[in-house]
Specification:
Elements lengths: L4 H12 L1 H6 L2 H5 L7 E8 L3 E8 L19 E3 L2 E3 L8 H21 L4 H9 L2 H14 L1 H5 L6 H19 L3 H7 L19 H16 L9 H9 L3 H10 L8 H14 L7 H7 L8 H14 L7 H7 L8 H14 L3 H10 L8 H14 L4 H7 L8 H14 L4 H10 L8 H12 L7 H5 L8 H15 L5 H5 L3 H19 L2 H4 L1
Antiparallel strand pairs: 1-2, 3-4
Length: 518
């Protein structure tokens, strides 16, 4: 039977594939290749999947027999990597099943990065070319399996996709979604002039950064920097800071000034963010410029306000942790649900998110849960500590928490006393042993107080040794009076002097009763 033009095109592309070219003997590249015919059949198997088998025939030309449609990928290039998109004819039922599996894996991967179900689905709908690219990668990786008619399992398919997606995430970071949606021509990527393959892909990331940096550094014929750069400089940013942003997040160099950057800046100013704080926000999270106002940013803000975030303090919240607005609702909900599990009230959850929005970035399983378990093991009220000092839960158990606990235990305090100190002063674990606790403890030993005084007033460790503790205690000794640590450190200078005066008057009254004075 004669082959159709479509069949011949598929076969020609397949034979030109680098994988097949590498398999042909050297002499076949010098002379016209002798093509062995191939018989293609599709067999139905359970679970509505198909298997393609290839059998050589004896005819002098290729004979293709297929009961279903064929798939043809168009070859395209991306940066330094050229992956052929023309491939052998594959039954459409098998391709459909593999495409659905590819979409499922990609959806799962995007959700793992913090995207919501809705956003992930929207990305998938815009990523047909990238899904085709995944399928081609799969076929090239497991070509021998298709040749012998063996179907890939779901685990094998996922095992091929996930490492590839992880490598893309490492290369593109937060720009991965843009890369996937716009493949093979992502924003910020200039098509190579040459379509010849490049074997080394390790240079692609650096070359992308170099082009992005060149884009923000290049002067116009008039000797001026790009309009985007001039705008950012006018905001207070330095050129080197802009380059640092682009180096970490190359897509920033290609954001539209009028459609991306200016609207965000104006929005932040409307929220009350000081103009001087905007450069810091952009440096911390340049990805904010790429977020849709209507689909992501404003709905997320409304969601967080419903959780109790103080809308009057958005300027401070965004300055502290601008990445908060880039997380999915699922990520935020998972964290707040866990806080409820710890016993934190809904009212206090809003306060925690307002004071310490970083809490959303902490992994529940890797950070929050182990830390909570540790505090509970030494009798600390976890819900209370989370409310008073949520940043404590971002500290390392081994490097920060245990050394502080052991510091006090070694100095004669019981576990119960340490728990009481932390309950009264949640920030106790945030202090450095070398720079804070040890020097202040050594000075405390020279003061005329019992160790129990620190259990009553652990806030002692929160005051400056040179500017507060030493001058105040020196003044107490000069006056010859005795005050508890709370009176010495927690009051203002004027109040402190009044307390000293009253103490001296009492001492004088005790020494010289009124009758004797007269």
């Amino acid at each position: 039977m004669n082959t159709t033009p479509h069949h011949r095109l598929c076969l020609s592309a397949w034979l030109q594939c680098p994988v097949m070219a590498a398999r042909r003997p050297p002499q076949s590249r010098e002379a016209p290749p002798v093509i062995r015919p191939i018989q293609v059949t599709a067999h139905r198997r359970p679970f509505n999947r198909s298997v393609v088998s290839y059998r050589p025939t004896s005819a002098s030309r290729v004979h293709l027999t297929v009961t279903q449609q064929f798939f043809l990928c168009k070859a395209k290039t991306y940066e330094s990597e050229v992956v052929p998109r023309n491939f052998a004819a594959i039954p459409s039922s098998l391709l459909t099943a593999e495409r659905e599996e590819a979409k499922a894996v990609l959806t799962m991967f995007l959700k793992k990065q913090g995207l919501s179900n809705t956003v992930a689905a929207r990305v998938i709908n815009k990523s047909e070319c990238f899904v085709d690219h995944l399928i081609l990668k799969l076929h090239l990786m497991h070509k021998s399996r298709y040749l012998v008619g063996r179907e890939l399992t779901t685990l094998e398919i996922r095992g091929a996709f996930i490492p590839f997606l992880e490598s893309l995430l490492e290369e593109h970071g937060d720009a991965l979604v843009d890369f996937v949606e716009n493949f093979p021509d992502p924003p910020g990527i200039e098509r190579a002039a040459s379509t010849s393959p490049v074997n080394t892909t390790s240079s692609s990331s650096s070359s992308k950064k170099e082009r992005a940096i060149a884009r923000v550094s290049q002067l116009s014929p008039d000797g001026l920097l790009p309009e985007l750069v001039l705008y950012l400089v006018d905001l207070g940013m330095k050129l080197e800071q802009i380059k640092d942003i682009v180096r970490k997040f190359p897509a920033f160099a290609y954001y539209s000034l009028d459609r991306k950057i200016k609207p965000l800046v104006e929005f932040l100013l409307e929220l009350g963010v000081p103009r001087s704080d905007i450069p810091t926000i952009l440096i911390k999270r340049p990805q904010l410029c790429g977020i849709s106002f209507s689909e992501n940013l404003k709905p997320m803000m409304a969601y967080l306000e419903n959780l109790g975030v103080d809308k009057s303090k958005w300027a401070k919240v965004i300055y502290r942790f601008p990445a908060l607005l880039t997380y999915s609702r699922q990520k935020v909900k998972a964290t707040t649900d866990y806080l409820c599990e710890l016993g934190v009230s809904e009212k206090n959850i809003g306060k925690i998110l307002t004071r310490c929005p970083h809490i959303i970035s902490y992994s529940i399983e890797d950070k929050l849960r182990p830390t909570a378990d540790y505090f509970q093991s030494i009798g600390i009220d976890v819900a209370s500590l989370m409310h008073k000092c949520p940043q404590t839960f971002g500290l390392s158990i081994e490097a920060n928490l245990k050394p502080v606990t052991e510091f006090f235990l070694e100095r004669g305090y019981s576990t119960a006393e340490v728990s009481t100190m932390v309950h009264r002063y949640g920030a106790l674990y945030t202090f450095s042993l070398v720079d804070n606790l040890i020097p202040k403890w050594n000075y405390f030993l020279t003061m005329d107080y019992p160790k129990s005084e620190l259990v009553k007033f652990p806030h002692y460790f929160g005051y400056s040794l040179e500017e507060r503790i030493k001058p105040r205690y020196s003044r107490v000794r000069e006056c010859g009076v005795k005050l508890v640590l709370n009176q010495v450190l927690s009051v203002t200078n004027s109040q402190f002097e009044k307390i000293l005066e009253k103490k001296r008057e009492k001492i004088l009254d005790a020494q010289f009763p009124q009758g004797q004075n007269k």
